[in-house]
Amino acid sequence: MKQETRYIALSDESGMGGELIILQTNAPAKRLKALEKESCEIYTNGDYEDVPIWPSVLEDEGYECSIIDSHQHVTPYDTSKEWQQEEYPEIKEFYYIDTIEE
Hints:
Elements: E1 6-12, E2 19-25, H1 29-44, H2 54-60, E3 65-72, H3 80-87, E4 94-97
Parallel strand pairs: 1-4
Antiparallel strand pairs: 1-2, 2-3
């Protein structure tokens, strides 16, 4: 079931470029959590090229999903967390692509 369109934040691990990506989507949180888990498993296995491109996957499934903005995790001026809190304070959903620790 689709939800209301909203902004979410997707953070990738520094080995993938280290940035915070702001997406606009109507995909349900349950689907996003599943995609997050799948992405982390692929990344942990070292298959970096196979990590799903979230907008492509979600659009193929019939959801809206577009990249709105992005910011490097660390710059000489600020961090992505500071940037997000200033530019997109309404975001309440955060997803992470990172190595799964055993």
